[in-house]
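Reading a protein record of the kind used here takes only a little practice. Think of the row as the fold of the chain written in a discrete alphabet. A record is reproduced here so that you can trace the correspondence yourselves:
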Amino acid sequence: MPYYREIQKNKNLRQGIKQITQEITEAKEELEALTSKRPTKQENPQDIQNMMRGTTGSGERFKIIDLGKY
């Protein structure tokens, strides 16, 4: 029966790899969608420039959050 345990262990590993691969693929697709976003006609070009600079329309800077703390 040791072979059965090895086979079961391999099946579990394979399922885990499939799940992780699927999650990576989904994250990659989301990232590509976010990075390839083009401004639409409804978006104000000034708003887009502010987003790129990290400022709000009133000139305030966005607060930078250090994720390393969490």
Observations:
- The helical segments are 2-35, 45-53.
- The longest helix spans residues 2-35.
